[in-house]
Design goal:
The protein has two domains: about 160 residues, Alpha-Beta Plaits (2-Layer Sandwich), CATH 3.30.70; about 60 residues, no CATH class. It is about 30% helix and about 25% strand. It has six helices and twelve strands. Strands 1, 2, 3, 4, 5, 6, 8, 10, 11 and 12 form a ten-stranded mixed beta sheet that branches. A two-stranded antiparallel sheet has the order 7-9. It is globular.
Length: about 240
């Protein structure tokens, strides 16, 4: 069974980030034979004084192939309760990745979470509309993380744009690529410029600085910049942990 797994508000200033916690959780699930995870996407949510968050108010969501949904769900719940940081308000969402389900109301909830203050009660209500297709649970503190967890899973289901966790590093002995070569080697499905316009020409790319990939239009995407007539992936700017 294919699902989206999203967690939010699991960290504090001294702990590992929510993204790292999700990857650790999915790694242990893989060792136990419960699931095989895909890449993780970071979704930026609303920054507001009425919303508690550690540094960026972002939720983390990965895709996964699950062997036994009930067993996997129980494992995730126990993992978060055991490993979430002191003082956090963890939330978990596991959403059935079924293209035949119209998740439009949930996707709108996710979009709203990027620009509005939402409540736990509203999150629970929206999740309940989809019955067993959406698992939503809180695992400590106020449980307010369920808002971001549901939002992140919904945005991922709607193929909304987010940032793929981790960096793409250049190869030590090769800096010059054609776009088609770059796509094949690094698994990139789409190139865009800084204005979001898709690049379809087989341009020459210089790759010598680490870069971040986007999940955009449901595809792994590289942002290409033009530096004095030379095309290159947009360099990664160092920020605080996710």
């Amino acid at each position: 069974m294919k699902v989206f797994v999203c967690i939010d508000d699991t960290d504090n200033y001294d702990s590992i980030g929510t993204g790292e916690l999700l990857e650790n959780m999915m790694g242990e699930a893989a060792v136990k034979g419960l699931a095989k995870a895909g890449f993780t996407v970071r979704y930026q949510l609303y920054i507001h004084d009425d919303i508690p968050y550690t540094s960026h108010n972002s939720s983390m969501c990965c895709s996964a192939e699950v062997t036994d949904l009930d067993e996997f769900t129980e494992f995730c719940e126990e993992y978060l309760e055991k490993n979430s940081a002191e003082g956090s308000d963890p939330g978990l969402c596991i959403l059935n990745d079924n293209p035949n389900i119209d998740y439009s109301p949930l996707i709108e909830f996710g979009k709203d979470a990027r620009c509005k203050v939402l409540t736990k009660e509203y999150a629970v209500k929206k999740a309940e509309e989809f019955g067993k297709n959406v698992h939503l649970s809180e695992h400590g503190g106020t449980g307010g993380g369920i808002i971001g967890a549901l939002a992140g899973a919904a945005l991922r289901a709607g193929k909304e744009e987010g940032r793929i966790k981790g960096k793409l590093h250049p190869l030590p002995n090769k800096t010059d690529w054609s776009a088609s070569e770059f796509a094949c080697v690094f698994g990139v499905q789409r190139f865009i410029d800084e204005d979001g316009i898709e690049i379809t020409d087989n341009i020459s790319i210089s790759f010598f600085h680490p870069t971040k990939l986007l999940y955009s239009n449901g595809m792994i995407t590289t942002v290409i910049i033009n530096e004095n007539g030379h095309f290159m992936p947009k360099p990664k700017i160092k920020k605080n942990k996710e």
